[in-house]
Specification:
Length: about 80
């Protein structure tokens, strides 16, 4: 998948889905690193790709959380 396609797909996800995606990426990254340490297959490019995707997911989560906190504070003040 191209970077642009991945970004579009991640932008369409809800925050909870992004957190689940981050967890699965962390697990996948762990498995790839483990395989690399065993010397099974060439997984350096896979590790790099997973790291970048995880960073993108974490960035989106960080951008969305302050916005959601601001909305809930306004609802309490106005409500």
């Amino acid at each position: 998948m191209k970077k642009k396609d991945i970004l579009e797909q991640l932008n369409q996800m809800e925050t909870d889905e992004l957190k689940e995606q981050a967890d699965s990426l962390k697990e996948s990254l762990f498995r790839l690193k483990f395989k690399k340490s065993l010397g099974v297959g060439d997984s350096v490019s896979d590790i790099r790709r997973e790291k970048k995707t995880l960073a993108r997911v974490n960035t989106l989560i960080a951008q969305r959380e302050p916005a959601q906190k601001g909305k809930s504070k306004r609802a309490k003040v106005n409500g």
